C-alpha cells in the first residue's frame, strides 16, 4: 500500500513541470475522503441499512442527507484550492547544518477565505495558513541543509480539509527555486583581520601585517596611529592607516592560495567563508579569489561571495 | 463568554450530541438519557477546566454498572430500545475517552448515527423537524471542530445542509426500497399501540374512547358507505369467564358463502397492532401483505408496528353465511355458571321471540325501552353476577357492557354468539379527502349465528340504546361525558374545524407520502415519471443520474457565483502575479508608485504599459472613485498585460 | 506651481544633498504646520530656515534659546510711553512670518510653553489683549538630541504642536565636497531672491488643503493609525488629531509632487516624520516606523 502510494506519488510528480508560479485548476487538484469522511460514510451506510430493515422512511432521509453533505463537502474542499495562485520566492542562503526557508507565496484573489496546509514532500511538518479573501501570504518551510551547494526546493504538497474535515483536496507543486547552503564557517584566527584584534585591545605587535599606508593626520586620529618616527624625522604629523579600518581604502585579499596544499577543499572553503563573514561584519572591503572565480567589491558582494563558495566545484 | 466557550470545537460537539439525544428522554426510560446528558455536561466542565480525564480503570466498571442498570430496567440490550439505550450509554463514555481530534470526530459520527434513533420510535413531522435541527447542530459542530471560525459558521452549516437537501430528496425518492425486512428484529413486548387489547372487560374500550389519537385513515374509491355502515372489525372474542371476554380458540378454517351486499373499495393506512389491522365489514378477499383469518379478520404477514397501507374491497351489508359444526356451535354457546336472572330472562326472550331473529328483536327492544343509559362512567359492576347487575340494577354502560350482555343473553338462550371489537364510524376530512378514524371510535358489537339461515348476523345493542352513537359518532352521543372530552372532540366552531381538518390533511399527506413511502408507491412514481416499469438497477441508475444532476443545480449555481472581489483589487492582484512571474516581488504595503518603482527593470514596452495601467489604477482609487464599468474595462486591460512575452 | 519648483531648486543649491529634508520642510510649511529639526549643530539648520524665508519672501527672525530667556523676550512686552501716557505693545521676535527657534530645549519650560501656545493659537495674549501673529506663521525649532545636560526636553504632549520632525544629518560626501569647494553659504543666501510671495504661499496652502482624499486613502490612513495603536512597543498609538496631521502633511507632499490627489505613497513619505515624535520615538528609532509601513497592507 505504502509502496503503491509512493509510486503513485512519483508518477504524479513526474507529470508536473517545474514552475516558478502557477494557478491551481481542475487538472492539479485531487480529492480523497479523510478518515473522518470515511467514518461518516460508514454511518450513512449503517443508517441506510437500518432504514431498509425497519422500513423507517425518515432514516432514509437521514442517510441520504449525510450522503448529500459528503457531496457538498467534495465541492467545498475543491473550492478551497481551486483558483489559488502560487509564486516561488527566492530563498535566502544559510550555512550548512542550518534550516533554510523554502519560501512560497500564496495569492487568494477570490472572495473566499481559504484554510490551507503545506508541507514538503509527504512526511514534512505541515504548515497551516489562513488566507483571507483577496489576500496574500508568504510561507516559509524550514529545510535542513546538510550539504554544501545548491538545493532545489522540494516538491510541496498543498492541501485543505476545510470546511468540514470530510474531504481532503490536495495538489502537488514543483516549485522552481533553490536555496544555497554555504560552507560551514570555520574560524581561521591566523588570518584574522586586524580590526577585531584592535578591538580586543592588543598591542600593535602584529601591526605590520595589517598596516596599509601612511596618510595625512586627521582630527580624531588616536595617538597610537600617529607615525612618531616620521614626526621625529620630518616634523610632519602623519597617521598610520590600517587595512582593517572601517573607512579604509585597502582591500583584503581572501584567496584560495592562502592555504598550503595539504588543506583540503572543504576546509579551505569553510575558512574562506568565515573570513568573508568577518570582513562583512567589520565593513572591510575584500576580494575573494577562487580558482576561476574572482569576486570584486561590489553591491551584494556577500551574497555573491558566499554563493561562489557554496557552489565551488559542484555541478550546478 | 459563551462565544469563547464555543470556540472550542470539542464543546460544540458535546452540545450537538446532547441536542441529538434530547428526544430520547421521552422515548427511553428517562433516567438513561438524563445520565448521559449529565455525563456530557460533566465532560464539558472538565474540558473547560482542562482537567485530567478519569482513567479507563474507573470508567470501565462504571460502564458495566450502567449497562447492568440498563438490563434491569429494559430487560434487553438489543432491538429498538435496547440498542438505542446502549448506544447513548457508549456515547457518554466515549466522551470521557475523547482526547484527540480523531476521538471527537468519532463522537460526532456517533452523533449522526444517534440522530436516527428517535426515528425508530416516531416519524411524525415533529420528529422530522427535530432531525433537521440535529443535523444542523452536528454539521455546525463539524465545522467548528475542523477549525472554521465561529462567526458565520451557523450560516455555513445551513448553507451546506440546504445545498444537500435536494440531493437527499432525490435519493429518498429514487433509491430502491425493500418490500420486507433484511432480518427480523425481536419485538418490544410492552409497547402498546393504539389498537385494542387482547381481552375485553368492562372499561377496556371506554378507556380508549377517551383518547383522540388517529387510529387509521381510509380513502374510499368511489362509493362511500354511510357512517352507520362503517364497522371496522379487528378482533373476535369467543370466550367469557364471567367477567372478561377473550379470544381463546379462533377457528382454524372457515368456509364462507357471501351473499348480497354491494362492493365498496377502499384503501386503509394504519399502524398495525400485533400484526392486526381493521377491515371494513365484510372484506371478501385478503389484501396484499396479509391473510384473512376465519372470522373475517386481517392478519399481516409480518410482525411490526410500522405504518401499513393496503387496498381492499368490502361487501357492504352482505350476508356472512357459514356452516358451524356441532362442536363449534357448542363452543360459541359456552358460558360459565352464574348470572341466573339473566339466564332466565334469555330463555324467556327465546320463548317469546320464537326464532333467532325474534329473539334479537326482543332483546333490542328490551335494551331500547328498559331504561338503559349510555354513559362512559357506569357504576362499577363488582358483584359475582356482573351481567345480572347490569341488566337489572345499574342499567348504565358503554358499548362493551351492552355487547357483553347481549352476547351472554344469546348464549344463554342457546344461540352461538361472539363479540367483535374494532371501530365504528369515522370522520371525513374534506381537505384531505379521506376518512379519519380515531381511538374514540373504538367499539364492540355482537355477532349471533342464526341456525335458520346459517349466517353470522351483526347485532349492535349500543345502536339500540343510543342510535346517535352509530349514526353520528361517539362525541355526539354521550352528553353526559362531553365536559370530559378534549376540546377537539366537541362540536366546534367552523374555523376551528377547518384548522383541525387542515392539520389532519397535512398529517395524512405526511403519512401517505413520507412515512408510508414504500416500494409500491415508488413503483407507481417510477411509472408516472416514465422512468420504467420496474425498480431495477437500470431504472434506479437512470433516476439517480437525472435526479442527481437536477439536485446538483444549486451547487452549480454556488460554484458559478463568482466571488465578488472588486475589479480594482482583482486587477491589482493580477498585476502583482504577473510581476511575480518576472521575479519582481510586490508586497501588500506597496502603493502604485512603489510597484512602478520596483518594476524599473522591466523591458521598456512592458514598463510603459505597466506605468499607464498603474496611473489609471491610482486615479480610480485615489483621485476619483471609478464607475464600475470603467474599473471592469481596466481589469480587462490588466488581464491582457503579459510582461516578458512580447 | 512653477514658482514652487523654482523655490525647491533654489533651496537645493543652497543646502546640498538634502533634497528630501528640504521637500519635507516645504511640505510642512504648505501644510500650515511647524517643523522640529532634531540635529547636531552645524549641519545647516539655520541656513535652511534662512533659505526658506528668503525663497518664500517671508519675514524671518531667529532666536537662540537659552536657559535665562524669558517669555517676554519672545512674545514682546507692553512698554509705558511717556508721551502718550499709555502702554504700547512692543512685538517680540515671534511676530515674524518665519521664526527659527534655535535649541528650543535649552529654554525653560515656561518659555517653551509660551512659544508653543503662540504656535497653536497663532496669536499672543498679553495683559488680556491679544495680538494676532502674521500670516503665514511658521516656526522651525531645533534641538540637539545628544545634549541632555541642562536642557528641558519638550514634553510629549507639546511635541504634538509640531507637524513634523526631521533631521538633516551629515551631507553625503560629494555634497560635502562641493560645500567645501563652493561659495560661502551666507553670500549665496544673499543672492537668492524671493520666488514666491506670502500671498502665493497662502494660495498654495489652500490648494493643498483642497486636494482630493478618497475613501480608499482614508482607509489606508486609518489602517496605519490602527497599526500604531496595536503595536505593543509604543506606549500609546496615534491620536485622531495625529491622523488629521498625517493627512494634511500627505496632501502637501502630494502637491509638491505635482499631483492633485493623494496617493498612499505620499502618506508613506511623511509618515515617519509625522508619527515619530508623537509616538515618543527618538530620531534614530524611525526604523520601527518604516517596518510598520512595510507591514500595513494598503487596503
UniProtKB/TrEMBL annotation, chain A:
Q: Where is this region: Disordered?
A: 190-210
Q: Please provide the record's keywords in A-Z order.
A: Membrane, Transmembrane, Transmembrane helix
Is this entry keyworded Transmembrane helix? Answer: yes
Transmembrane residues, as ranges?
29-51, 57-78
Can you say what this protein is called?
Uncharacterized protein (DUF58 family)
Automatic annotation (TrEMBL), chain B:
Q: What keyword terms does UniProt attach to this protein?
A: Hydrolase, Membrane, Protease, Transmembrane, Transmembrane helix
Give a yes or no for keyword Protease in this entry.
yes
**A biological process term (GO) from this entry:** proteolysis
- SUPFAM superfamilies assigned: Cysteine proteinases (SSF54001)
Protein's UniProt keywords contain Cell membrane = no
Drop me one GO molecular function for this one.
Answer: peptidase activity
Membrane-crossing ranges are 12-40, 52-71, 105-121, 127-145, 157-175
Residues covered by the Transglutaminase-like domain: 391-463
PANTHER family recorded for this chain?
Answer: PROTEIN-GLUTAMINE GAMMA-GLUTAMYLTRANSFERASE
Q: What is this protein called?
A: Transglutaminase-like putative cysteine protease
Q: Which organism is it from?
A: Aquitalea magnusonii
TrEMBL record, chain C:
Zinc recorded as keyword: no
Family that this chain belongs to: Belongs to the MoxR family.
Pfam families xref list: AAA_3, AAA_lid_2
InterPro entries hit by this protein = ATPase_AAA-3, CbbQ/NirQ/NorQ/GpvN, ChlI/MoxR_AAA_lid, P-loop_NTPase
Which species is this record about? Aquitalea magnusonii
What residues does the ChlI/MoxR AAA lid domain cover?
Answer: 226-280
Q: Give start and end of each ATPase AAA-3 domain.
A: 34-164
Q: State the UniProt keywords alphabetically.
A: ATP-binding, Nucleotide-binding
Give yes or no: UniProt keyword Nucleotide-binding. yes
Name of the protein this chain belongs to = MoxR-like ATPase
MF terms in GO: ATP binding; ATP hydrolysis activity
